[in-house]
Amino acid sequence: MATPIESLNERKIYEALKNVKDPEIDTVSIIDLGMVESASLEGDEVKVVLLPTFLGCPALEIIKKNTENSLKELPFIDKVEVEFIYNPPWTSDRITDEGHKGLRKFGIAPPPEHFEEDGSWHVDCPYCGSTYVTMDNIFGPTACRSILYCKSCKNPFEAMKPVSTMM
Amino acid sequence: MSNAENVLSPEYKEALKTLLFQLADDDFLLSFRGSEWLGLAPHIEEDVASSSISQDTMGHAAMYYKLLEDLGEGNADALAHARPAEERKNSVLAERVNGEGYYLETPEYDWAYAVVRNFFYAQAKKVKIDSLRTSSYQPLAETAVKVSMELYYHLMHWKLWFTQLLSSTDEAKRRMNNAIELVMKDFGDIFSYGNAKDAIEKEGLIAKEEELKANWTERMKPVFESLGMEVPAIPAASEKNGRNGEHTEDLTEALTTLSEVYRLDPAAAW
């Protein structure tokens, strides 16, 4: 019976991918961020297709390497191929609920689900949940983040910048 | 995508490559000029913002060079660093220095020029990207969708600076108007495809020059009207057409500086 073994191995691949964290945010994995488009196993070869978040992100090569290393540790895998593709484009709504939790734990507000009519957007403070926040800088320490300030708990915080194909 | 070069006609491929070099070199040079502002922007938040924009823009250039690599033009790093000035296809506007002086010594860069150049350029890029979303070359259309999401924030950022400085003091207005004049002098080749005009336009790769120009003016109108100003006319041609490899001394100097480390060891892994 080949099927149960296959699904067991696929499960292990999924777990291995869950262990590949964002190099700068160790509370979220590439699965949580919605960067994994597909992973397919053929014999002892696995092919993983990833979607880059921002095109100029310097962490992409590190993520690629970490993905390869994590999968190579599985005993039934001999060869790993990791490829970045741009279609479908990565959008911030691909971040899972688990990802939202992980981001908040790190002090980063997850991206908002909706935009206002004028294209602006709002997030709540990831520390105290207050909605009384101001935008300090739409650009942040990395391409994917913005800097905000909570007027309730007086903490500066970051938010994942929302991106969608409507832009 | 990797077998694209086998199925494209030689004329189509030639036109496509020329267009990709124009797009790549534009973003590459402008992001280099942006990087020279690092640590010098008017305040710390702006330093974070404009360097982030430069990083995105460099990422866009890398994508275009990668598409050229896929078409058999050679390694993307080499395409970015090793091509001499006369082979470059960027607009002259993208290569211009930020102002007087060298960034490691006593630069006297002009922030008004930075704002106007970046705003006008970002709007031109937006008009092109919107057209490229329906490009006949699928990998380019897909890249355009991705670039567009990041460009959205760039455009918003430069538009804000533009309107605020032009609504500010007389000194600010004077400097901004001088910058507008300077930038428009170099705007003649922004929408030009150079000698490849006919070849590029007939392949459905991107809209015609005239259509892009009209779209740019249309998009700029509400911004200028809100300031009680008129959109400056795009010159029919500039003194030099960068699309045909005509450039200023600024480009030669920029290439010498930006490729210095690359040339020390072209085989090094990054």
Describe this structure in words.
The complex is a heterodimer of chains A (167) and B (270). Chain A is of the alpha/beta class. Chain A folds into two domains: 83 residues, Fe-S cluster assembly (FSCA) (GMP Synthetase, Chain A, domain 3); 58 residues, no CATH class. In chain A, 23% of the residues lie in helices and 26% in strands. The mean pLDDT of chain A is 91. Chain B is mainly alpha-helical and 270 residues long. Chain B has a single domain, classed as Ferritin, core subunit, four-helix bundle (Ferritin, Up-down Bundle), CATH 1.20.1260. Chain B is built from twelve helices and two strands, in the order αααααββααααααα. Chain B has a two-stranded antiparallel ribbon with strand order 1-2. In chain B, a hairpin with a 7-residue loop joins strand 1 and strand 2. Chain B is globular, with a radius of gyration of 18 Å. The N terminus of chain B is likely disordered. The interface between A and B is medium-sized, with 25 and 27 residues.
**SS class of chain B:** mainly alpha
Shape label of chain B: globular
Average pLDDT, all residues of chain A: 91
Task: List the secondary-structure elements of chain B in sequence, H or E.
Answer: HHHHHEEHHHHHHH
Give the full name of the CATH homologous superfamily of chain B. Ferritin, core subunit, four-helix bundle
Rg of chain A over CA atoms, rounded to whole Å, is: 18 Å
CATH topology of chain B: Ferritin
CATH homology superfamily of the largest domain in chain A: Fe-S cluster assembly (FSCA)
Give the strand content of chain B. under 5%
The count of β-strands of chain A is 9
- Looking at the overall shape, the CATH architecture of chain B is Up-down Bundle
Quantity of strands of chain B, as a count: 2
Taken as a percent bin, the fraction of beta residues of chain A is 25-35%
Q: How does the overall form of chain A come out from the CA principal axes? A: elongated
